[in-house]
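Render this sequence as a predicted structure.
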Amino acid sequence: MVAVVQRVLGASVEIEGQTHSQIQRGLLVLLGVQNTDEEQDAIYIAHKIAQIRIFADEHGKMNKPVQDIQGNILLVSQFTLIADTHKGHRPSFIEAARPEKAILLYEKTAALLSQKMGFQIPTGIFGADMRISLINDGPVTIILKSK
């Protein structure tokens, strides 16, 4: 799995002109699932997202996870994170998991994050044409990989 974790002051997902999900301060996470990923990858990524210390402490150092600032997490599927761009100019998505597998692992990751946070994690809709808006804080953007 590949997760792009962005520290945000706010983020939202719009689908067909309607706001589907939104958060205030917290993390916007774009998640790509590879065809070799399994449940252990979802467990690893969910743990890393919940525990990554990228919020400032009282000394201004990135030392707090999202829970410590009473933040939220917005999780959005994005298979294009798995693109292979080594050859030519058209990305290859051969390493991206098929939808039947990807949706299960995406939903598993959302469920694990909800369990760790103690509340339902807002998400996008798998496979939907979405518009993502965000106010990146910092900017702070971290790439996590399960392998």
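Summary. The two ends are 7 Å apart (CA to CA). The beta strands are 2-15, 18-23, 26-32, 55-56, 62-64, 72-77, 130-145.
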